[in-house]
Amino acid sequence: RLFRRLVFGACIGPLRSGAPHVSTLISHKMRWLLILLCTPSAQLFPLKSRRLGRSPAVRRFAVVERSSGGIPPDALVTQSVDLPTWKEERRRLLDLSADPTFPRGFAKYLRSVNLGDKGSFHCFEASGEVLEDFAWSEEIGSEEERLDMISNALEAVAYLHDQGLPHLSLSGKTIYMRKDPKTSRSELRIVGIGAGPQLVAASRPFQLAEGAWAYQPPEVLQSAVIQSNLAALMAMDSWALGVIVATLAANDAESPFKVVKSDFARLPMLFGEQGATFNKIKTVLKNPGEFLRTIDRKGNGFLFRHPWLIQLISSLLTFDPRDRMSATEAYEIVVKSRSFEALQAKAGVTVDAEEDEAQALKGFEASKSTLMPAPDIAPDLIPQAPETAEASSQTEANKAALPDAATAGKVELKQFAPRLTTDKASGEPFRSLEAILNIAEGGLCQVIVEDRGEVWKEAGMRNYGEIVGFRNRSDGDRWDVFMPGLGEQTDLPAGTRARITRVLGIVLVKGGNHKIAVQLEGHRVLGRKPVREDVKKFMDGYVKLHPNTYRKRVKYLSVERL
């Protein structure tokens, strides 16, 4: 470098000062040669980049490296917003890429490069083209490829959530589609690990992805400023996953909630893209049956051939983020459902397409509270309990197909830790205590009575059952109910199914595993006093059967209609 400067100063300097004796010795071509020798290569051959979009954590570039350096040729590169964020992202990427269970849904991490004033970058393996530019009609070879894409996307985000990291950057611009050079199968890849490291490294607010309103949940579209906890941030990812699942199922490259400029260009000050997207979500989900038929029609019947996808879409695209299915739960459904379909195919079981569509739509309408308010649900479309014999026959086979439940890392909330279970309620939507009380009060759910054995009866816990179709997050199983006030001689037979006509009260149990006292259709209570006596017996019996539960920690709240 010193030699270059000396040559440059000796030859070009006098030339610029107008010294005639030097110009006669150096030809025009020689002057340009000296300039090339004395100029740093980074200034001669700068990185050529094409901007693809921005996310809360990174700005993404497709980079072609023309000079030797730290960035591999033809690598897909993400640029960090600042040096502290880059360091935290690099640490996370190194740790995660060394994990043997790191999901295939992520693009392969190559290295991280800090170019000083030019920025800090992370390099990933070239992953094809963005989802929004993918040619569906020409690239997809089989339904298995599409199912693999859905599974890989859910597994990748569930893995991040198990590490306590929200992504917050999922959209058609941050998900790439590529051809596997060995198998020629189309694959889905998520580039980078999103905004989680930035939230750890920086105390300032993060910026949502520009131009990705079609993938944002309603709570984001209705707010100018977002201040939230980890659970709410992960619920934002769940909504984006629901949009992606609907997009993949429809063989479409665009979000079903994407708006065109003509939808909001007339009144840009009052009705911008953000507001137009929110209104389109309300319009589309107001008629969920037509929404599903549109997805199925675009996907050539793909959705109704795999009706469990309806459960994913309806539970992920939920207006209330507190009731939205987590990515971990969604991935569990995919694993078990695909395993069951494989067993059916092996046994030669065929399903009539029209019957399959009817059953799928009926199940979706029954759980329509995920998209619409509870009063809009038809009482005669309550979901029925699965056949217990069929479920039990598949239990061991489904367990064998599930991945091992690894111990979660430092997760802020337990509901994001792995819960790989195969029970009769698997796939049914979760409901909060407030939501299930509203559903029960409206007569929109049924109860099936269970026989818990003589031990429970001797402890005073009689007429016990569960609500069909809705689960409690605390234990992952259906909401538990009991029917007090029916008299000493009245024991409802196991298997009795009846609609709830009234909520009498709630037994509050530590850990959220609350029990709801209800009255069933055709089984009226004898009065307030018998109800109170049976509730007291139930609470005493529950404490007796659960040694780690203290009587003073179990409370009963009576529900009154004012």
From TrEMBL:
PROSITE patterns named among the record's database cross-references: PROTEIN_KINASE_DOM
Occurrences of domain Protein kinase (ranges): 1-340
Coiled coil regions in record: none
PANTHER family reported for this sequence: SI:DKEY-192D15.2-RELATED (PTHR44305), TYROSINE-PROTEIN KINASE C03B1.5-RELATED (PTHR44305:SF24)
Source organism (scientific name): Pinguiococcus pyrenoidosus
Origin: domain of life: Eukaryota
Annotated GO MF terms: ATP binding; protein kinase activity
Protein name in the entry: Protein kinase domain-containing protein
Matching InterPro entries: Kinase-like_dom_sf, Prot_kinase_dom, TF_kinase-domain_protein
